[in-house]
Write a structure and sequence with these properties.
three-stranded antiparallel sheet, six-stranded mixed sheet, 192 residues, 3 helices, Jelly Rolls, 17% helix, alpha+beta, binds fe (ii) ion, single chain
Length: 192
């Protein structure tokens, strides 16, 4: 019997294998990743748990990337209570799954002009749960670590390199949103 792949290699392989087509089946990807995270929970925490102890703020770690077809796989560390701004994903499709802890994800629809955003629902993700979105300019969301004490870890798969995206703020009482370009900063690369 062959040696079983490391958990990092397995997660990468699922993300790569299921994102070969132009319209990947993100529901299947979410199920496969969730199954792996549940079945190998001890290994997951042995490989990635140290990212919860660094206390360096919100961090993005590159797990794997491929250019053809384009896909990137990242792990993110969320300090207690940390919330992202409302943000888009540069038109890429994406999937996020909770590795450890729990996240709230509030989705928004962008209107015809970039100053209008409408909340379209919330979901809550515990360990192994996933949510996803298609490649559309109209999707945005805000994500928050629900714990006030513990760092959460999440796995993200995007249909390309999410180097730049837009973050949205509501600076005044008018309810208008303002979009500002942001750069994704990578803390480092994870190895199998
Ligand atoms: Fe996001």
């Amino acid at each position: 019997m062959g040696k079983r792949s490391s958990i990092i290699t397995s997660l990468r392989d699922i993300a790569f294998d299921l994102s070969d087509g132009e319209h990947p089946d993100l529901a299947s990807m979410g199920r496969e990743i969730g199954r792996e995270l549940h079945a190998r929970n001890g290994e997951v925490l042995a490989s990635l748990g140290a990212l919860r102890e660094r206390r360096r703020g919100f961090e993005r770690w590159m797990l794997a990337e491929r250019s053809k077809p384009p896909v990137s796989v990242l792990v993110m560390a969320w300090p207690p209570d940390y919330s992202t701004p409302v943000h888009d994903h540069g038109g890429l499709w994406g999937l996020e799954a909770t590795i450890a802890g729990a996240l709230e994800v509030e989705s928004f629809d962008k209107g015809d002009d970039e100053h209008s955003l409408r909340s379209s629902g919330r979901t809550w993700l515990g360990p192994g749960d996933a949510t996803w979105f298609d490649g559309a300019e109209t999707h945005a969301h805000r994500c928050r670590n629900l714990s006030r004490h513990d760092t959460a870890l999440t796995l993200h798969v995007y249909g390309g390199d999410l180097a730049q995206y837009l973050a949205y703020e509501q600076p005044g009482p008018s309810g208008h949103w303002i979009a500002r370009p942001r750069q994704s900063i990578i803390a480092g690369r994870l190895t199998a």
